[in-house]
Every structure is written in structure tokens, then in C-alpha cells.
Specification:
With about 200 residues, the protein is α/β, with parallel strands linked by helices. Helix content is about 40%, strand content about 15%. The protein has a 5-stranded mixed sheet with strand order 3-2-1-4-5, with helices on both faces. The protein is globular.
């Protein structure tokens, strides 16, 4: 597979359209079947963190107040990933925040997202759940740290991506796993998956 950047955000809520902002971002670069580089930072967007989110993530308002400004962090992480294809677990969520935070610094995303959640639904349909934690347990992947912290979740999503690539090679006899193939798989209904491998 070509080099990819697996990203994860922690946020104040579910939707940037409703005024929610990122509180933490991480990206890991995956090359040659392993993580070769990492970026992580808390980010101060000047938006209070609700108590429920603070208990979920462990990220407090005090931590974010002491963090660099959101725009500075977003520029740094965008520079870090460059033009590598992006991967996230539940990319529908992370891509919204990536695009919204980029727009605030006058930039637009050029690359597409691969979604490890959609891929896992197609390639590991027998898993009891397709939440990241459940898939890590099901596939016996290493737990990289506390769930709902950006770097740990990005690292575990990267491990999941590599496991899904192994699944493609072993079960579907795919010689070369590419980002293009992964994007086709995530767009294809489960019942029609075989057409991705002809």
C-alpha cells in the first residue's frame, strides 16, 4: 500500500456545523506495514468542553486553555500529512472536522479519505461491533493507550487498517492493496463485494 496518514480528532461535540470544535488531533504515517512517524497536539479553539466530553476523553478545559491555538495546530498537522491519502475510523466524522478546521485557516483538503469503519463492515462482517474498541479486541490488536485520545485512537485505527489489508491478501487473494481499492470496497455494498476483486 502507498504511504497513508491515519488521523483522529477529539472534539467538543458531533458537528462543526453546530459550532463544535476540535480539542485534539493526531496523525500517524503508515509506510511498509508499520507506523513510521507521529504527530499529536491538543488545540485551543476557545470553545468550552461539555462535562460529558471531558469525562469521555479526559481532556479538560484547563488542558485546552494551555494548548496552542487551533489554527496553528491545524497548519502543523496539515503540513505533517502533506498530500498523503487520509484514513480515519468513521471518516464521515473526522473528515467534517478536518475540512472545517482547514477552512478556518483558508485551506481545502485535496485528498480523499479511506474509512476503516466502512472497510471493517465489509471485510470483518462477523465482528460483534464495528466500533474501534470492539474491533481492536476482536482482531486482538494492541491497545495503544486510552480510547478517545487522538494518538491512541489513530494508532489503533492504523493497526486495524493493516489487519484489513492482511484480510484482503489472505481471504480475497489481493496481491496489491491500494488506496484506490480500499475506496472502491468502502463504496460497494457487502453483497456485491466480489466485484471489487475481479
Amino acid at each position: 500500500m502507498e504511504i497513508v496518514a491515519v488521523i483522529d480528532f477529539e472534539t467538543t461535540g458531533l458537528s462543526p456545523a453546530q459550532g463544535d470544535r476540535a480539542t485534539e488531533v493526531a496523525a500517524v504515517i503508515v509506510q511498509g506495514g508499520r507506523i513510521v512517524d507521529r504527530y499529536q497536539s491538543l488545540m485551543n479553539a476557545g470553545v468550552p468542553i461539555p462535562p460529558f466530553i471531558e469525562s469521555l476523553t479526559g481532556i479538560s478545559n484547563a488542558m485546552v486553555r494551555a494548548a496552542p491555538p487551533a489554527g496553528e495546530v491545524m497548519q502543523a498537522v496539515a503540513d505533517f500529512v502533506g498530500h498523503y491519502p487520509l484514513v480515519a475510523h468513521n471518516a464521515a466524522f473526522d473528515s467534517k472536522f478536518w475540512d472545517a478546521e482547514l477552512a478556518r485557516i483558508g485551506q481545502r483538503r485535496q485528498q480523499a479519505f479511506v474509512c476503516s469503519l466502512l472497510l471493517s463492515r465489509r471485510l470483518l462482517p462477523q465482528a460483534p461491533s464495528h466500533k474501534l474498541g470492539a474491533l481492536v479486541e476482536y482482531a486482538q490488536l494492541p491497545v495503544a493507550g486510552r480510547y478517545h485520545r487522538a494518538l491512541a485512537d489513530a494508532e489503533m485505527a492504523a493497526s486495524l487498517l493493516l489487519r484489513l489489508s492482511d484480510e484482503l491478501r489472505a481471504r480475497h487473494r489481493v496481491a496489491e492493496v491500494s488506496v484506490d481499492l480500499l475506496q472502491r470496497i468502502q463504496r460497494t455494498p457487502k453483497a456485491q463485494l466480489a466485484r471489487c476483486f475481479v
